Amino acid sequence: MQKKQxxxxxxxxxxxxxxxxxxxxxxxxxxxxxxxxxxxxxxFYFFEMDEVMSGEQFVTLYCMFKTFxxxxxxxxxx
Length: 78
Hints:
Blueprint: H1 3-12, H2 16-28, H3 37-46, H4 55-73
Helix pairs in contact: 1-2, 2-4, 3-4
C-alpha cells in the first residue's frame, strides 16, 4: 500500500491517532509497502488498538497476525 492509502484506512476505522503514533516506525521498518488492505481490514476486525500502542508493538502484532491470517487462508502452503 501507499502511505496515503494506509493512513486513509486507519482513518476509516477510527485509528487516525494510532497511525500518527506508529507512522515513523512503519517507515523505519519498511512496513508500509508490506501491508495489504485485506489483511489490515481483517486485523482491524480482530483487534482493538489503543492510542498509546507503540510502533514496535504494532509491527510485532501485525506481523504475527498476518502470518496466521495467510496460513488460514492458504493452509496447504504451510
